[in-house]
Amino acid sequence: MLRVPKCRASLVDPYRAHLRKRRSEDPDVPVKHLFEEIKALGFTGCLNLLHKDINQGRADELLAKLTAACPEMTQLATGVRNFAPPLTPHADNADALTRWIAQVRAADLPHLHAFTRGLDRDIDAVIAGLTLPYRNGPTEGVNTKTKRIARQMHGRAGFTLLRHRILLG
């Protein structure tokens, strides 16, 4: 089976050598100036296309600069990422939650301390939500549908008419 190449041809491709040369000469040259230069050379694309092409690798560079400048950001991002796996219901999530809370407190991340205090206030409900397979999504769906129907009738529906519309629709 043949695979489609990941890099597709772009309108910027014929001007890439010029762009690289200009960026190596002056890394801080504004994209608008580069756009005007290649437009004079015959570029037919738009400024957004050039922005997208030039800024492709910048996200990784920016992340590296931010983490070097502020190591707390790395710890904070790691702490938030480590909280995601226990959000899928599993019996071991209670232990994972207590380990995560201990790690966050040991890392001394004040931004997450308020969150962990909130978790501690109602730890039984949090553990039940992370370990049990039950969800209240269907109930919330019914509530949303009821509110939508009431809004569609501009608040003029009495209980009997609203009940009728819910049961029939």
List its traits.
10 helices, mainly alpha, Transposase_DDE, 169 residues, Transposase
- Would you count the extended β strands for me? 0
**Helix count, DSSP H or I runs of 4 or more residues:** 10
**Total domain count:** 3
User: Which strand-content bin applies to the residues?
Assistant: under 5%
Q: In which range does the helix fraction lie? A: 55-70%
**Coarse morphology:** flat
Distance between the termini: 48 Å
The multimeric state of the shown protein is single chain
Q: What number is the mean pLDDT?
A: 86
Radius of gyration: 27 Å
The low-confidence runs, each spanning 5 or more residues with pLDDT under 50, are none
- Elements, N to C (H/E): HHHHHHHHHH
Largest sheet, described in full?
Answer: none
Structural class of the helix and strand makeup? Answer: mainly alpha
Overview of the molecule:
Pfam families: DDE_Tnp_ISL3 (PF01610). This is Transposase. Residues 73-166 form the Transposase IS204/IS1001/IS1096/IS1165 DDE domain. InterPro entries: Transpos_ISL3, Transposase_DDE. The structure is a single chain. 68% of the residues lie in helices and 0% in strands. The chain has three domains: 13-56, no CATH class; 71-131; 137-168. The model has no long low-confidence stretch (mean pLDDT 86). The longest helix is centred in the last third of the chain and has 16 residues, at 137-152. It is mostly helical and 169 residues long. It starts with 15 loop residues before the first helix and ends with a helix. It contains ten helices and no strands.
